[in-house]
Amino acid sequence: xxxxxxxxxxxxxxxxxxxxxxxxxxxxxxxxxxxxxxxxxxxxxxxxxxxxxxxxxxxxxxxxxxxxxxxxxxxxxxxxxxxxxxxxxxxxxxxxxxxxxxxxxxxxxxxxxxxxxxxxxxxxxxxxxxxxxxxxxxxxxxxxxxxxxxxxxxxxxxxxxxxxxxxxxxxxxxxxxxxxx
Length: 181
Fold this sequence. Notes:
Blueprint: E1 2-7, E2 21-22, E3 25-26, H1 27-44, E4 48-51, H2 61-70, E5 75-82, E6 91-95, H3 100-114, E7 120-125, H4 135-138, E8 146-153, H5 157-164, H6 166-178
Parallel strand pairs: 1-4, 1-5, 5-8, 6-7
Antiparallel strand pairs: 2-3, 6-8
Helix pairs in contact: 1-6
């Protein structure tokens, strides 16, 4: 299978990052690290990968979807870290509204990640996101399963301690890659 791996956010000129930042962690950096790790394990399992962002620079959302489609990917997986009140914690996934195919795959990702110590916030339609109708999902889900994973809250002490641990991130990458069939 060929999988598009999307490291959420990225830097813009004059702006060091566009994602969340808390507890000495920056979403843009963590997402890129995770995508690289996930890609390694996917390729080791015989899959092909396409990265929508290979460095710290921001890639426009529409271009991310175009990269996946132009490379004839069979799945789109966008990796993010969440932010919110310090009490908010856990893993959640978003899929385009009514996309049952992606919903079922996202449930597998979440169930595997929960085993690594994150609370289960479930799988939600993208119109339940604070951003409503997530562009990277909307640009890809009709062609391939498309999932946006939020792998913990940078603003929560429990989640951020896990995310900061390179060994835990390695286990997370293994779990995510093993969910791809």
